[in-house]
Fold:
Amino acid sequence: MIETKEKILLGMLDLVAETGLEKASIGRLCKKIKVSPGNVYFYFSSKVELLNTLYYYCINSLIEAVDIKTYTEISKDEECTVYTTLMEDLVKKVIYFYKSNPCMLNFIITSKSSCYLSDEIKRGRFTGANFFNSFWEKCKDKGIIKNVSTEFIIAFILGVIYEFMKEDIIHKNISLDDEKIDILNDLIWSGLYVENRVMS
Amino acid sequence: MIETKEKILLGMLDLVAETGLEKASIGRLCKKIKVSPGNVYFYFSSKVELLNTLYYYCINSLIEAVDIKTYTEISKDEECTVYTTLMEDLVKKVIYFYKSNPCMLNFIITSKSSCYLSDEIKRGRFTGANFFNSFWEKCKDKGIIKNVSTEFIIAFILGVIYEFMKEDIIHKNISLDDEKIDILNDLIWSGLYVENRVMS
Structure:
């Protein structure tokens, strides 16, 4: 059975998608998921705390979905092709994750520019992307991708993925099928690859 | 002297940056810029209409700043190097525009995922990016950039620019100086260029 805390988080996720962040009050949430305010305040001292926890919850779900260990534990001795395949898989996994969880994408995108999230989250000290830092460092060491700061690599990849996912899930201007995801992957990795190193 | 209509628009731009979209009411706007509600309602029937007009206003300002004619009127006979220089200049101009107008960046980013903007804007039928369509078509015809749909090219470029600008202006995680803008440009154009065609 789903625990109350998770029920509250998932309820808030749906509520934000329905009403937007501002109107997603704890009162409305209680009515929606039929939980008493006392029960909500037992777990979260405020709407702000609930939304911050929800952000971590979404990022952790994404981290789980992409099988982070494959990326953190990869050996330096692996061939470049293994690295490049993993990188392309990562983009695919992120896209399919958000396709299955459109409310999470909506929340991640709208909350980040809102007044609710903590400075720690906004300054990126906690983002799922950081878990991949060691992977990017190894890619740079091996000369597969450009030797630019890891922050730049993450901003580049996330910027592209988020924009395309927004166009797909929120604005419904495009629909990312396998063929289009391949094009998207090609745009991203052409941007990052070190020339003539791709096929080694 | 600045006209009342523009004063209202610019006042709203500042107000949204201060309070966020939801709390930026016409009442607060009137107090802030010392204009009567009747005067605001003479120009805009509602907050929604004001925000939609503001979106067009921001995009038009950007369009003016990047000198759109250079891009729409470029001849097909120009050399590839002229095209590539223009493309790189475009990214630089957009970045410097938003650096000088941080409230516009904040508004463009937060409003697009809000409930206030019209479907027309959200579906992208009116975005500044569309004005460049003919330029991208010519770039594709000349084989400078990949032959992918123009929507993809625009989403790719805007996604990257917006993410970096957000990190710079809103979250202050990075600061885009000339050197970093060059790196950013390199990431974007490596993604788009057709290999071995860059230097021709």
Notes: Chain B touches chain A through 45 residues (CB under 8 Å). Chain B has a mean pLDDT of 90.
